[in-house]
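Weekly structure sync - notes
Attendees: PM, LS, DV (DV joined late)
Agenda: review two folding runs queued last week.

Item 1: First target. Sequence and structure tokens pasted below for the record.
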Amino acid sequence: MTVHTQVEDDLTSHDYELALDRVASVAAEITEHLQTARACLDGSQGTVERPIERPVESPVARPEENRIVPGEVLSATDNPLSSGEAAVQYREPLPAPSAGDHQKALVELIDTLRTLAARGQRGRRGQRGRRGQRGRSGPRPGTTRPLNAAVSYRPSRQDPLAVSVKDDGFGLTELDLSHRLHQGFGRAFHREVARLGGRVRLFTAKAGDVWWNTAEFGVSAQRRVGVGTTLGRKPKRDTNAHGTELIISDLHPLGEIDGRELAGIRTHLGDVFSHPLAAGELRITVNGVPVQARRPCIWSAERSVRRGDLEIFAVQRFHHTGGRTKVCRECGRVFSSLVCPACGPSRATPVVGEVWGWLGVQRFADPDDYGIDVIRRGRKILRRSKRLFLRYPWSEDEREQEYPGALSRRGRLVGEVHCDAVPLVGAGTSLDFRSAEWRDVVSVVRGAGPLSPSARRHRGLPENISPLGLLVRGFGENVPGLSHLMPGDGWAAQHQLDRAWAEGFRAGDPEFQTDERWYEEARRHDELVAARHQFASR
């Protein structure tokens, strides 16, 4: 079989991105022909190991030390931890995983699938022919379709119990999978997954492929790449099937996963991924039961209070466009330097440092259940965080919290802040609070200087008209009545009753879905206070 290909030289037009995409298109065409030929020659039904020789390096291919040839088993030279002894050496003695460990691991697994699905969708650009015809890769690029992720606890052939997470995304090509395995899935992925089990099996394919591209590797909390990675292929029963599946096996000893723990897992996933779930971009099921997005129990955006001549609404929305930065198309890292710190010279996509979201007033006040969710690429990095209430939110040593005030131990300001451009630090699960991008977030959300109106007057500063500054001015005190939108009984606020109503809201009780019940109780409080004062004045 002969495959005729031609790659035009775009160097004269300096369109390097187009040249790389055309090279990827040629590679995809060659891969498709090879898959068809191997399917005709090999009729076996099991996983096929395919050690092949390294191809001649092309001018646009990756350096040899940064490549994994699809189908080969990594040697000790490619991966010093490829031997079984090395894998056992990095299996840390860990305690039995708890329900919290399962929740964290599943978050990393689903986030990895979302990243791979996005990479697979971008990779489809290289699957178009030279005339622009659409290849056999599933839906058209740019179509809005939710990503379906299914989590299941079920037995496998090798283990009595395995954790499987799979999606119906576009899937990965052999080349994309190889590059991803060489870069690793990040230290956070390995750290959390290693608390559950020691081995990960990955299956991925695009629609129209006749093979599932497979990989199996060990995980270690001390690594960011797989241990003892083995690549292979498995024939597909349905060539139209597509997506990616991750199976965690060799699980550590654990107790029985009962219905209560599964419900806790669904609640946690619905909280971390609440935005893509509510927006219809993501659907998650755990053992067949859908995960519901955590909805904020806040006052309507039409409610407002007056402070002098200023009307302050209970929901403040903002959208700020900042400077341009870059995101690596290989590992997803955000950087502003010339090359990616992790991958070196690679293709990068310019992105705009947007900060957008909303802040609102919760219908109940609570000592802990309040704060601002900070979201990066659809995943909550900080949940109900109080960092933006600190006097200096960029300082790691800051402890002075400006809201709630010293006389109140309960808060009710909540919100969502989306900031994809803020870089991550550590294992990739924390934001870089010293970065310029985070300072942009602070400036947009809370402005400069103190939040307290009295503190600003004392320092001779103008009023804080930032979204958070306005809400602190209008709703910073927990005073019952319509003046602060807080229910009361004629004497004081009803915090316990408000909280019980909020539980009804989260349970889906129709009586508590709108804020009418809270509003009527706040109005009734004002009427009782007025009647008591009128009686006392007689």
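Item 2: Second target, run right after the first with the same settings.
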Amino acid sequence: MDSVIELFSLSSLWLVISTGAYADSGVTIYMLESVTGYEEQKVILPCQLTTSLTDLVVVDVTWKKSGATLNLAVYSPAHGTHYPAEPNSSRISFKHPTVNDATLVITNASRNDTGIYVCRWSTFPKGTISRETALEILDIMPRTNRQLIILAVIFIVLLLGLMLLTEIFVKRKKERVEAAERDASGLEMDECHRELVYASLNLDGQKATRNGPSEENIDSEAVVYGVVKHQLRSFFFFVCKLQRGVEAFVRASGISAASEASIVPVSMDNKDCFFHFKMTLVIWISSACIALLSVTCGKNVTVDESLSALVGTEVLLPCQVVNNSTIVQISWTKANQNKSLAVYSPQYGISYSNKLYSGRIAFRNHSRKDGSILINASELQDEGNYSCQLTLFPVGIQSKAISLTILAIPSNNATPIPTEAGVSEVPVATCTSANGKPAASIMWISNLPGNQTSNQTKNEDGTLTVTSQYKIAPNSSNNGQTVMCVISHLATNSTDTFTVELSILYRPEVTITGYDGKWSERDITLNCVAKANPPATNYSWQGLPEGLQSEHADLLIEKVNSLMNGTWACEATNIIGTGRAEVVIRLQEKGANSADAPGGLNTLHIVIIAAVILCVVVIALILMLMKRERRMKETSVHLDDFSSQTQVEQRTVYASLNLNRLLNASAQREHFHDEERTVYADIKYNQS
């Protein structure tokens, strides 16, 4: 059964060899993109290298399963083979290891063998070249399927053997057939009918029923050959016709040149047609086997270390050997580039083949323990993922991935944006971080309510420019206020802070100073004060009396008189607009403010009058209080006298108030007001 699987794997390889190849400047690796196997069966993973370079040397071939720590198999032309993952097992082995063939064989496969397998070739001076194949191990092949495959293989083998015997027989009788053909009538027919003409001969000695040669022109031996040939070639006639149909279908459907080239021209003879049928049969059987392979090939990259450097500086990419393995070769590659950057072999020396790093890359020590490289004057294009391939024996190829990031320090600045005052939100300040890598981060700090917007642009050299604007609804009070822009960048690991003074454009806001209502007789100055951005450039006074005029902000009045009464105005203008202010002037003749003037009351008079009125009110209150106090004293004296007169006869009595008497007594006492005030009640009492 293993031989059956191996046969299908090898047949499939030649069919897909054109699609599973990796080419790099004269070096080609042939592999299957995917392979399907079954548990407890043998699996073959082909990996072959061809090259047109005469100076290319293969120093090592390593197989490794993606995600595994140890390599599966290592082949070195100088040291032989080794199997680090299973050193004491014969389950994994090279089929026939050479400098051009590293095909791997896995016997007694299991589901754990499913995965991505990487075949890496260490070459000098090209460096490491690798390809991947996806292996899927299915459950144990069903018994029915295995039986069918065995029967199919037996049938094919028998068929091929039968064809081979026929070829041998044909070769021995070829000369006699050619002689018989020369005697024939020379009928022209296609290759598929050519020999069947003689198969219709009558063995009883009758003449041919078709257009073949007569009985007299063919000896008995030729007749016997013709009958035998008919019996053996009856199937071939069908096959030859089938071949012609296949050939026509292939040409009509536009199959690849590799498959079409395997079909021989129509003008071939019977022997070529028969051989071509055998090859075509193998190819189509192989195609059926390949149609069963369905494994998705994935790639898994592990980054062991991340580095960053400023553009223009020197960068060290470390790669050192930490064990006692023998170094066969060290090579550096960069992702997405076909050529190796640098290759060091203790046997063959050093090679730098990548022109992008010409003169800028070198091994630091290129010793058996250190494969670190230096990149001088780093450029932005140097950013990417680098891989150090250490080819060791017996360990095999060990890889170390390094991610390199190139940083560029940006140029930063912040400026105000002159903006007219209004109700809409507009940009008033801008902050820019140009030509940096990666992009800078910008934030605003302000007491003014507003919002910020940011925009990022990628430059041709790969750097980034970030522009941020701060927006508010500006008014005149915002002019001269400040906002802060803070720029942070990874390259400097710090922040830059810029203070921006806002420039809000607005028309003049005008006020007139210098008039307080107490002008002296002469040399008075009025000032037209205009607050504006930009400053006012033109002033004009309006409503002035005759003889007064000015084209400046200041108005000088040499002599003051009442004829100047009125409303004066000043207008100031800038590029935004015009502002206006007014002042009302009220002046009187000399002496109009004197205290003797009729009807003329000044503030002093009002204060004096108010003070006199206040004093009168206070004196009146004092007199009223004194009079009340005197009355209260008189009442107290009367009560004391009454109390002293009744003290001798004082006793405890029960008294009742005679209200009728009180009413009468009140009527009789109307003429005695002074005494009535001292009498409080008449008491009637009975003495016991």
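Discussion on item 2: The chain has eleven helices and 37 strands.
Action: LS to circulate a short write-up before next sync.
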